[in-house]
């Protein structure tokens, strides 16, 4: 019985560590060859286990909302606006769990993402 408990605890710890590592690795891919937004925002930020649990909860909540929005369909411009609003709310919630030093890095990472997105757009597009 002790061996089973030990094996279970080891498995849970491994999953916890791999989740933290994955969230902090900006090279993790989500769609195609685009990096995961959360991973990019948390680049160079070391989260505590409590912070990581909150990040996982927040990203899960917003992932479900964004999937529901896409599944509902409708006007593309309206969906884009709602998606942007959800992303802003998610970003605000994520930032709220960080320390002041972590927030500075988070803001820098967000600005880097914004610049990269603008540099990717073809001239004249919105």
> H/E order of the elements?
HEEHHHH
Strand content: under 5%
Low-confidence stretches: 26-31
How would you describe the oligomerization state of the chains in this entry? single chain
**How widely separated are the two ends?**
61 Å
Key attributes of the depicted protein:
5 helices; 126 residues; two-stranded antiparallel sheet; mainly alpha; single chain
Describe the structure.
- By secondary structure, this protein is mainly α.
- It has one domain (2-120).
- The chain is 74% helix and 4% strand.
- The chain is built from 5 helices and 2 strands.
- The protein has helices at residues 2-23, 37-41, 49-72, 76-96, 100-120, and strands at residues 29-31, 34-35.
- The protein has a two-stranded antiparallel ribbon with strand order 1-2.
- Helix 3 packs antiparallel against helix 4.
- The longest helix has 24 residues, at 49-72.
- It is globular and about 60 Å long.
- The chain starts with a helix and ends in a 6-residue tail after the last helix.
Which secondary structure elements does this structure contain, and how are they paired or packed?
Elements: H1 2-23, E1 29-31, E2 34-35, H2 37-41, H3 49-72, H4 76-96, H5 100-120
Antiparallel strand pairs: 1-2
Helix pairs in contact: 3-4
């Amino acid at each position: 019985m002790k061996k089973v408990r030990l094996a279970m605890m080891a498995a849970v710890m491994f999953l916890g560590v791999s989740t933290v590592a994955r969230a902090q690795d900006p090279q993790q891919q989500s769609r195609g060859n685009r990096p995961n937004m959360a991973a990019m925002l948390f680049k160079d930020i070391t989260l505590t286990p409590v912070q990581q649990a909150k990040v996982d909860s927040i990203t899960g909540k917003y992932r479900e909302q964004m999937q529901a929005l896409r599944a509902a369909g409708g006007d593309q411009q309206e969906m884009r606006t709602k998606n942007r609003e959800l992303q802003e709310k998610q970003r605000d919630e994520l930032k709220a769990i960080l320390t002041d030093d972590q927030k500075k890095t988070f803001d820098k990472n967000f600005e880097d993402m914004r610049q990269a997105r603008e540099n990717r757009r073809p001239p004249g597009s919105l």
